[in-house]
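SEQUENCE-TO-STRUCTURE ENTRY
===========================

Subject: a protein chain together with a token-level encoding of how that chain folds.

Sequence line: the amino acid chain in single-letter code, read from start to end.

Question of interest: how does this chain fold, as expressed in backbone structure tokens?
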Amino acid sequence: MKHALVYSRVSTEEQAQGGHHSLDAQKSTCTKLAKDLDYKIVQIFEDPGKSATNMNRPSLQDMLIRCQDDKSIEAVFVQDTDRLARNTNDHLTIKALLKKVDVKVISASQPSIDDTAEGNMIDTIIASVNQFQSDLTSRKTLKGLEEKVRNGGWPLAAPVGYKNVTDKHQNNIIGVDEVMEPLVREAFRTYATGSHSALQVANMLYKKGFRSKRGLRMQNSKIIGLLKNRFYIGEVCWRGIKVKGKHKPLIDERTFDAVQTIMTEHNRHANRSRKHNHLLSGFLYCAICGHRFTGESHPEKKAKYYHCTKRIGHKEKYTKMDYLEELVQERFKDLQFSQKFIEMIVQRVKHRFSEKKEEIEKNRKTLFNQMKGVEQRRDVAEQKLFNGVISDDDFERNRKKFKEQLESIQDQIYKLEKVREIRINEVQEVLKLGRNIFKAYKEAHPLLKKHYLGLFWERFDIKNSEIVKAIPSRIFKAIQDDFKASQIAHKPVFVRRASVLRGDCHPIQSTLNPVGVQIRSEWGGYRDLNPS
């Protein structure tokens, strides 16, 4: 008796419907036909809940391998050819693989298909019709999803912070995940401070339960995608459709916009972990071709250079790293805050430091009171031990508990002191920056220098190892917004930036208007970019 296999498949939708397309129905039909044709079924392969639009199906792959390895197999029975594939190319590929090992495909509902030229033509036509039907179904499904999106719904799995639920009418809607919602809010608020990277946000919130579905720390790319997702401000964006969603926004637009601005700045002047971190990476551009400069370090030669990454149509020479960094440092001499702005900085820093100092002092008094309370309870326990009221074992347990509580409180007091030291260091650095930008930059740690570069400068264009153009940073716009309450007028003005743009001495309109920032002109004196 000839040996054969049975292959059956149902999609999730067909599986739910049952009937003619059920696995049992296919198995019964194929087995009966095989018996009638004098074939012995040696194995049945089933792919439940699998689409036929691709070949990525475990049992299909196993069936093809069995046919290649077992020379006794002469046929594969299927109920319909669309069980094998609903894609013409895949269908012909499967038929070709089976034909190569002399295995026939026998369809229970299409017995007229044989291996003749006519049979192959009919088979190909049926495969094309199957694909057309599959494409039509996909199109109808897609149209339905698009209609749902246009009505403010969401067709996919809910983003982190939300969950898929059903309303009283059994409609699928997006609800708020009470567990993850506060963590999503905290992720946005933390990143919006500008003091943390996406990786640091993920690490900080991991201990609080901000994790992937597998319980792992969120990948950096996932955090960035979350922070960029406008779904959190109430918008639905899908396949080019952008509408107001029916779900509850978790983040206000101001916070969201602040996050996008900070992310742009981080990407532009990223200081990622590398073997060599070069100070001006991300700030230097070729004035000839417009491409970025890159830094190279050659420890064996004790040499470091910056150079154009492309050098298309030109031969911009390598420039020593120290030389260009010195030129950039000199440009900070061109920047100076107005006296009014410096006074404002001093007042604000003083006010904020006083607030933090009061908060720290308040917390410290609370901790000292807690410590005093623990010590009193410890003294009472000792007195009870002396009077024989409690046993040695009870006293030992209490003593251990009191010791742990006191150590915990002392640790918190120590951390408060460290916070106060950090605050005063921050104050010192801010005041130094306000009073003398050049000196603050020159004396700063390399990591802090990188921040100062991003604060004040957008880019430097280099030609023949010289800075031919220096463009101030748009971060000044954030400074302007932060100090709106100062009642200083913010008006666009025309200024000459000869010192900043060397050789480009025509009047240009300022789009930055940083509050009280001055740029020194080549002909002497200072001009306010935003005079009151």
Observations:
- The two ends are 100 Å apart (CA to CA).
